[in-house]
Design goal:
CATH class of one domain: Alpha Beta
CATH topology of one domain: Alpha-Beta Plaits
Bound molecules: iron/sulfur cluster
Largest sheet: 3 strands, antiparallel
Structural class: alpha+beta
Helix content: 10-25%
Length: 109
């Protein structure tokens, strides 16, 4: 037991740091699904994304205000996959931690 604890103390962490030595974010793969990007000019309000979202993270009002509640999002990619106008995409931004739920919503009029 003590041997395991001591070896864990000196082992490299299994996780990677968010920043490189130069202070930039570590690069992520092209297929990484980070914070959602939404283009309101492409959206036709068909509601397909809301119907395919398994967690109910997408809300669209009558005046086409789309809100992605990222605290509910599991980044499955279904919304992007099913959007007929390619209005939804994923960024490489992985910093979405907040104590305030309002701060992690992607909302566009
Ligand atoms: S990635 Fe999945 S969970 Fe997140 S908003 Fe799109 S469909 Fe919903
Ligand atoms: S599926 Fe695409 S076009 Fe349809 S409402 Fe959602 S974002 Fe807009």
């Amino acid at each position: 037991m003590i041997k395991k604890v001591l070896s864990a103390l000196f082992r490299k962490p299994a996780t990677k740091k968010s920043f490189t030595k130069s202070g930039e974010f570590v690069p992520v793969s092209e297929s990484y699904r980070g914070k959602i990007i939404f283009d309101p000019d492409l959206c036709i309000g068909c509601l397909l994304c809301t119907r395919t979202c398994p967690t109910g993270a997408i809300k669209i009002t009558e005046n086409k205000k789309v809100t992605f509640e990222l605290d509910k999002c599991i980044f499955c990619g279904q919304c992007k996959e099913n959007c007929p106008k390619n209005a939804i995409d994923f960024s490489s931004d992985f910093l979405m931690v907040s104590r305030n739920r309002e701060e992690i919503k992607t909302s566009v009029n």
